[in-house]
Design brief:
Arc Repressor Mutant, subunit A; Rna Polymerase Sigma Factor, Chain: A; mainly alpha; 9 helices; 2 domains; 0% strand; globular
């Protein structure tokens, strides 16, 4: 089972405070998150492992830039997005503008952190089952099958929860 935002943040802060075991545990915990992140965006690519390693190195090298008052995963995924874009540039691949927009939902760390906080607040207004299904599939990048297994429910239940939750969020946002 994956680590929560709070657990990852605690490991990061522990590492920043000199706890080598916490830093090592953080890097190990990030591997499946980053694998899902890259597999989802680079389907069929054999470059996922390289990108995960590059991102782990970047996290290690830039750890001093992490703001303890901000969500950890927003910082992590900002690094991951820029690693992916750099990688695609090195490969000189043509990327449709729609894909770039999806990769760069927000430009900077501040906007990314604020967006993550807003999404968290919105999801907290939903029933727990719907909120968890959306978090697992749309934020954490799990497949429907993975989310169903994690929640101990059927795949169709996850799909219905996601659909109903997104519909409820859209209604709230429309006012």
């Amino acid at each position: 089972m994956g680590q929560s935002e709070d657990q990852l943040k605690a490991l990061m802060i522990g590492g920043l405070d000199g706890d080598a075991a916490a830093h090592a545990a953080l890097l190990r915990a990030l591997v499946p998150l980053l694998e899902r992140f890259y597999r989802r965006r680079l389907a069929g690519s054999n470059e996922v492992d390289d990108l995960v390693q590059e991102t782990l190195i970047a996290v290690h090298g830039r750890r001093a830039t992490y703001d303890r008052g901000r969500p950890f995963t927003a910082w992590l995924y900002a690094i991951a997005r820029y690693r992916m874009i750099d990688h695609l540039r090195r490969q000189r691949r043509h990327i449709p503008i729609e894909d770039v927009e999806a990769m760069l939902v927000t430009e900077g760390f501040e906007a990314s952190a604020n967006a993550r906080i807003d999404v968290t607040r919105l999801l907290d207004t939903l029933p727990p089952k719907q909120s968890r299904a959306i978090r697992d599939t749309h934020i954490d990048g799990q497949s429907i099958a993975e989310a169903a297994t994690r929640a101990g429910i059927g795949e169709s239940d996850v799909k219905i929860s996601v659909h109903r939750g997104l519909r409820a969020l859209a209604a709230r946002l429309k006012g």
